[in-house]
Amino acid sequence: MARRRRVEPGVWVRETRTGPVYEVVVRDADGRQRFRTAGPRLTDARKLRDELRGFRARGELPRPRVPLTLGEACDNWLAEKQAAVRESTLEAYKVGARLLGDLRRRRLDHLTPEDLARRVSELRRAGYADSTIAKAVAAARNSFRWAQRRRGWRGENPALLLERAERPAPHTQARRRALTPEELGALLAACDTPRWRCLFELLAVTGARLGEARALRWRDLDLTDPAAATCRIERQLDKHGRERPLKTPASRRVVPLTRALAKRLLELRAQSGWAQPDDYVFVAETGAPLDSANIRRAFNRALKAARFADGRPAFPEVLGARQGPPPTPHSLRHTCATLLIAQGLGPDQVAWHLGHATPTVTLAIYTHELRTHQQREQRRRALEDAYRTLELASVWQASRLPKRQQRETAARIFPAKSNRR
Question: Which band of pLDDT confidence, cut at 50, 70 and 90, is reported for residue 421?
């Protein structure tokens, strides 16, 4: 390292191959003398010196620099997040932290964007999906942010400096599986008990997440008038059956129920031994809420038993046919969104029904469905206009026919107008 030379009180300079580098001397909270790099100009050093002197006058001494590794920063960041996020989210964070591999042993000030980009390439060659690699990049990014905020670490965050081609693209995923009305009808008809039918129909009508439906109590359902029945969603259950807050404040909502579903829920309550207002709607024999694994097993049984009216399997993929992954209970939420979009509802109304934080979330998830519906309607209007011209041409040709044939042609082209006569 080049020898430092004192320029003026508190300012030093050292000559390098690229030119002079000015530094400022300061004492940290441990009383140790430290040099802070200011830049290639003397004015930069004077500005930094005056700023540090102001901090010292207010009693804000710089924190001592500690050689912090990425693994230490990552572990401390996870420890802070443990009480603030859901268990599933914390597990995803831990997966990303483990995927950092040997980078965890490197000091933060020794890591570069090239190191992180090299790790991304290694994970891709190992066969990891981009959605999984994105968790590792997020763990690195948040670890650097934790060090900057909690330890006063100063430096560039390499995760923010990755080039576009180096960053994982987690949104390259398969289209979400949504059931057609015929498939949904076959699924509900194949349920082996009224309890399962009510649960799966409620998921399809309300678009509720599985944890939200499991947490429903009878007091959350207003079934006084089946024609105006509603369902209030205020909480959810985790995989261990513990009540947790909803995913976002917008998830707290009241959604309408269909008349048919309201009547089935009334019948289910009359037959249930757990029908008090504080009892769960969908319960096991002990009165405890249904387990997620049991729900998935019942759903898979219904998929295998579902048949169309002509006897064909409604879901051949669960019987071994190579037609993509089979539906899951969460597919009923996508089914609800797709059916609402097909009925012409806008993103804001669909977002409110599903409990999304903003319509932007709905657009990000269901862009394909919204675009498909809008383009289908545009094509339909274009075809209607085009064939309307053909119909008018047919009427002009029919005007040259005898009166009786003119009436028959008009009745065939405009049946509603002929019926009114």
Answer: very low
Q: Provide the whole-model pTM.
A: 0.63
Q: What is the 3-state secondary structure (H, E, C) of the chain?
A: CCCEEEEECCEEEEEECCEEEEEEEEECCCCCEEEEEEECCHHHHHHHHHHHHHHHHCCCCCCCCCCCEHHHHHHHHHHHHCCCCCHHHHHHHHHHHHHCHHHHHCEHHHCCHHHHHHHHHHHHHCCCCHHHHHHHHHHHHHHHHHHHHHCCCCCCCHHHCCCCCCCCCCCCCCCCCCCCHHHHHHHHHCCCCHHHHHHHHHHHHHCCCHHHHHCCEHHHEECCCHHHCEEEECCEECCCCCEECCCCHHHCEEEECCHHHHHHHHHHHHHCCCCCCCCECCECCCCCECCHHHHHHHHHHHHHHCECCCCCECCHHHHCCCCCCCCCCCHHHHHHHHHHHHCCCCHHHHHHHHCCCCHHHHHHHHHHHHHHHHHHHHHHHHHHHHHHHHHHHHHHHHCCCCHHHHHHHHHHHCHHHHHHC
Residue 385 has pLDDT above 80, yes or no: no
Question: 411 pLDDT band (50/70/90 cuts)?
Answer: low
Q: Average the pLDDT over 243-272 and give the result.
A: 92
